[in-house]
Design brief:
Blueprint: H1 11-24, H2 29-40, H3 49-60, H4 63-80, H5 88-93, H6 101-110, H7 116-127, H8 131-136, H9 147-178
């Protein structure tokens, strides 16, 4: 008799792999947090980089975010190795403007923290500050067609999470002052 084994993947291993692959591709939590700070500093002048890092870590703790990161990095690596089928290989290698699957994968991350993330993502994706400029550079031999959008989405989601929490804090303070 055949005994079926239940599939189970250790969530800690997925989280560790996500962090390791981001590091291998030159993306630190601090570099993502700097994007969060860029997005939110005008609204919260007292905002610290540590607060931004905390929100980046919270976003990265989500399994659907980890899945998107690992999938995107794998596709970028396959493109670097020339292992995608034509014409997909050329579209990903050249980050073709009409190829939007990279943004769609990134939007799965943005969705985790609500609609404010969409505007943050669009804004940061257009400007490409900080680590996004480096990831978007086509001259270093690496392909980051998916990763640049994923990193922007993580920052946008973390900025959204931060904004929601700051608003909740304001509301709690207002309630406390009423008492």
């Amino acid at each position: 008799m055949f005994k079926q084994v239940t599939y189970s993947l250790n969530s800690r291993e997925v989280a560790e792999a996500t962090n390791q692959w981001l590091d291998k591709r030159g993306v630190s939590k601090t570099s993502i947090a700097q994007l969060v700070h860029f997005l939110q500093k005008d609204y919260y002048p007292e905002l610290t980089l540590d607060e931004c890092i905390t929100n980046v870590e919270a976003v990265l703790s989500k399994r659907e975010v980890q899945n998107a990161v690992l999938t995107g990095i794998q596709l970028d690596l396959l493109a670097e190795e020339g292992k995608l089928m034509a014409p997909l290989q050329e579209m990903v290698r050249n980050d073709e403007g009409l190829y939007g699957c990279d943004e769609i994968l990134a939007l799965s991350i943005v969705n985790v923290y609500g609609s404010i993330g969409f505007t943050n993502f669009g804004y940061i994706d257009k400007l490409k500050p900080g680590i996004l400029k480096k990831l978007n550079d086509k001259n270093d031999g690496q392909i980051h067609t998916f990763l640049d959008d994923i990193v922007g989405a993580i920052a946008a989601a973390a900025a959204s999470r931060l904004a929601h929490r700051k608003q909740a804090g304001r509301e709690e303070e207002a309630e406390r002052l009423k008492e």
